[in-house]
Amino acid sequence: MLFSNREEAGRLLGEYIKDKVKDVHMVLGIPRGGVVVAKGVAKILGVPLGLLIVRKLGVPSNPELAFGAIDPDGNLYLDRWTVDYFRLSREDIDRVAQEELKKIRERERRFFGGKVPDFKGKKLVVVDDGVATGQTVIAGIGYLKRKGADKVLVASPVCPKDTEERLKAHADEVYCYHTAESGSFAVGMFYRDFRQVEDSEVEELLKDGVL
User: Fold this and answer.
1) What is the mean pLDDT of the chain?
2) N or C: which terminus of the chain has fewer CB atoms within 10 Å of its end residue's CB?
3) How does pLDDT run across 99-113, given as a tens digit for each residue?
4) Are 187 and 130 in a shared domain?
5) Would you say residue 208 has pLDDT above 70?
6) Confidence band (pLDDT; 50, 70, 90) for 211?
């Protein structure tokens, strides 16, 4: 499976789930790439687009490799195997966590004007451009449920089989357009165009959304 770009992935994912999900209040994209995909899903479902600002915690020696994630309340979701393998100390974890929480606050100010969206009683679909370990999405699910969301669904263009199964223990429903069965996995492997998305593009995508 190879998507041309995130826009195509969003259209395909939206068509895939449109008859499977009902009465959704909002589609939430995980910045930044996930927002592009989420825009297409929201358009097909006919619901507003919003943001779920959670951040990956990267191993200091290899920031692209996640050892966990952090949500807007500062709660940590750790992959104990990765933490132990890289012998990350509490100080290492706290330092990275504080850096990422600062980035969450910056994006809350930029995208929300400091006003936190109200998710209470809502049925939400969380979308990213792909899910590798699932830590960031799991952090988002936990956050939304603590904020009173009625149901949290997850939809992704691509994810590994084991991650899809792991997400089912946290989300009310999980939809993966393409499930990768085995072998090495990186989200970018499944896109011809996987360029970085800028914050200004996210702002443009959100213009028709309701936050």
Assistant:
1) 92
2) N
3) 999 999 999 998 888
4) yes
5) no
6) very low
DSSP H helical segments within 86-167, as ranges? 90-107, 135-146, 161-167
Here the tokens at position 101 are 């929480």
In a domain, 1, yes or no: no
pLDDT in tens, 181-206: 866 788 889 999 999 988 888 888 88
Residue 38, class by beta-carbon neighbours within 10 Å (0-12 exposed, 13-18 middle, 19+ buried)?
A: buried
Output the CA torsion 78→84→87→93 (10° steps). Answer: 10
Statement to judge: residues 39 and 81 lie in one domain: no
Domain that includes residue 134, residue range: 6-53+113-208
177: how many CB neighbours lie within 10 A of its CB? 21
CB contact set of 118 (below 8 Å; sequence gap of 6+): 147
Residue pair 67/100 in contact (Cβ under 8 Å)? The answer is: no
| The domain boundary residue, chosen from 77, 92, 110 | 110
Whole-angstrom distance, CA of residue 43 vs CA of residue 47: 7
**At 122, which CATH number?**
3.40.50.2020
Please check whether residues 184 and 158 belong to one and the same domain: yes
Give the rounded percent of residues in the chain with a pLDDT score beyond 70: 97
Are 137 and 181 within one domain?
A: yes
Tokens of 79: 């992959």
13 CB burial (10 A radius; 0-12, 13-18, 19+): buried
Tell me the residue type at 155. A
- Same domain, residue pair 81 and 172: no
